[in-house]
Write a structure and sequence with these properties.
Blueprint (H helix, E strand, L loop, with lengths): L1 H16 L5 H21 L7 H20 L5 H9 L7 H23 L9 H27 L4 H4 L7 H30 L6
Helix pairs in contact: 1-3, 2-3, 3-5, 5-6, 5-8, 6-8
Length: about 200
């Protein structure tokens, strides 16, 4: 699993960094994947996550790297989808924001359960969703700060494509993603948590 994860991560990262649309945008988009990798490497020996969490993190990293290579507004497959179905914009960024709720939901759930942060499990769903929304809102603030600091250079990073409700729809999709992850993956996640050595729980 570790070799598979590292191989896919490295291949996609290298591909992503070869002649991207814009290196500044590439760095902004890929930076969370790089920071995530450092955190995972630093915590691997003392707080190893479930296979499900690692797989979801890898998927999220790939989404970021693809968006960094093309910019979120110009991913070719989603240009084809836009043109084929008469859409007004390239919606690849919406996949990213759905993942921004879906994937952190499971990681947050795992940390809260294993660290016994919440004593009453009835609060778990509510707290996980709140944390995912907080992450989404903070990312929107980062996009705003990047726009203020870099001016026109941040247009590709923002990826609004003229959509006035872009920020609100991004956070709405993160909400949907977090709820969907909890509904679809909680039982699988619980089974994997149950297989962890007691010392790691």
């Amino acid at each position: 699993m570790k070799i598979f994860w590292l191989s896919i991560y490295a291949v996609v990262l290298i591909w992503s960094g070869i002649n991207p649309k814009d290196y500044f945008t590439w760095l902004l988009e890929v930076l969370p994947a790089l920071i995530g990798f450092i955190i995972l490497a630093a915590t691997y020996s003392r707080f190893r996550l479930t296979p499900l969490s690692y797989l979801l993190i890898l998927i999220h990293c790939i989404i970021l790297m693809v968006g960094g290579h093309y910019t979120y507004a110009e991913v070719p497959l989603f240009n084809w989808i836009r043109d084929s179905f008469g859409m007004e914009r390239n919606n690849y960024d919406k996949i990213g924001h759905l993942a921004q709720g879906f994937i952190p939901a499971i990681i947050t759930r795992e940390i809260l359960l294993r660290k016994e942060v919440i004593k009453h499990k009835s609060w778990l769903i509510f707290i996980v969703i709140c944390i995912c929304l907080a992450i989404s809102a903070f990312y929107e603030l980062i996009e705003w700060w990047a726009a203020l600091l870099s001016g026109a250079a941040a247009e590709a990073f923002l990826g609004t494509q003229g959509y006035v409700w872009d920020t609100q729809s991004d956070m709405g999709l993160a909400l949907v993603g977090s709820v969907l992850a909890l509904i679809v993956l909680s039982k699988v996640h619980d089974r994997q948590l149950g297989k962890l050595p007691k010392i790691q729980r």
